[in-house]
Amino acid sequence: MTILVTGSSGHLGEALVRTLTAQGRDVIGLDVRPGPFTHRVGSITDRNIVRDAMAGVTAVLHAATLHKPHVTTHSRQAFVDINLTGTLNLLEEAAAADVAAFVYTSTTSVFGDALVPPPGEPAAWVTESITPVPKNIYGVTKAAAENLCQLFARNQALPAIVLRVARFFPEADDDAAVRSAYNDSNAKVNEFLHRRVDIADVVDAHLKAAAHAPAARFAKYIISATTPFSREDMAELRNNAPQVVRRYVPDYAQEYARRGWTMLHGIDRVYVNDKARAELGWQPRHDFPALVARLKADEDIRSPLAQAVGSKGYHERDFEHGPYPVDDIAGD
Questions:
Q1: 137 Cβ contact partners less than 8 Å away, ≥ 6 residues apart
Q2: pTM, to two decimals
Q3: CA Rg, the chain, in Å?
């Protein structure tokens, strides 16, 4: 079984190729940029390159994409070319090659404006049933590519799974207000309560999705760390997150105090991974209680895989006010 991984010089692509190689699996890494885990250099927008890479492939893990931080440095057309046309090229060649499983890495950013409830309302309990309302070209192209996957599953009998993945990037937050209010590790650990996932769990979800695709034919799943909260907590969580967190993970407060960290005052949305855990048999190991335990032991909050992949950045240069060209990129 040969697996094609697109975006193999990026965060997730490298993590996928690393893991598959360690498992002794046959894997082909494809990326427009060369790298130690990329076997073929070329763009998914080039149909001939995609066709050649698809030869002998039995499963595709499609992680290549332009990301939200590229919104102000790349044209809308570039997003359409890479995120949409590139995905179409892969789907058409995968269908022609009779590939057994196609796993598309989407994003929780597709939910867009559906994520944040009006003032005074409870936090949003975000499941796969919520209709996306994308609010930038990134979200629009990712949502459209999801629809292409569904189209090919229905009309070309290509088993396809869409994974709406929460944030897992190791770089500093793209919001200047977050960067100024929280230590970087503090901000990331907070997010494991409701909107972040470790890359090791993302990789595991992709491999389980590939195995599940032939039976499912088509499905969408949210891939985020398991939240300790229940739906009944949403009203209180919006206005007093520390009180809710103490009920579920009481020892967090002492550890945060030791480090001079701050818990979010309120949380406006919670990503729910129940469907992925139930249908894929996926069991994410990196959640808020696990990270608090690591903090208490003075261990790295990142999984060994996240540490190995490290930080790659999204741009080849730094910007005046931080890691991104603007401080407020409309997104998730």
A1: 71, 76, 79, 80
A2: 0.94
A3: 19
Report which residue type is found at 171: E
- For residue 26, which amino acid is it? D
Name the residue among 132, 250, 246 with its Cα closest to residue 237: 246
Going through the chain in order, the beta strands assigned E by DSSP cover 2-6, 26-31, 40-41, 59-62, 101-107, 124-126, 160-165, 218-223, 269-271
Strands 26-31 and 101-107: unpaired
In angstroms, rounded to a whole number, what is the distance separating the alpha carbons of residues 224 and 216? 20
SS (H, E, C) 94-154: HHHCCCCEEEEEEEHHHHECCCCCCCCCCCEEECCCCCCECCCHHHHHHHHHHHHHHHHHH
Q: Which tens digits make up the pLDDT trace of 177-210?
A: 898 899 999 999 999 999 999 999 999 999 999 9
Contacts of 150 (CB under 8 A, 6+ apart): 160, 162, 218
Contact 83, 65 (CB under 8 A): yes
Q: What is the pLDDT of residues 238-283, one digit of tens each?
A: 999 999 999 999 999 999 999 999 999 999 999 999 999 999 999 9
Number of other CB atoms surrounding residue 239 within 10 Å: 14
Q: What's residue 1's pLDDT?
A: 83
Distance CA 133, CA 111 (A): 5
Report the distance separating Cα 197 and Cα 180, nearest Å: 22
Token duo for residue 170: 């190791």
What is the distance between the alpha carbons of residues 38 and 33, in angstroms, rounded to a whole number?
A: 8
Walk me through the domains of the chain, giving residue ranges and CATH numbers: 2-306 (3.40.50.720)
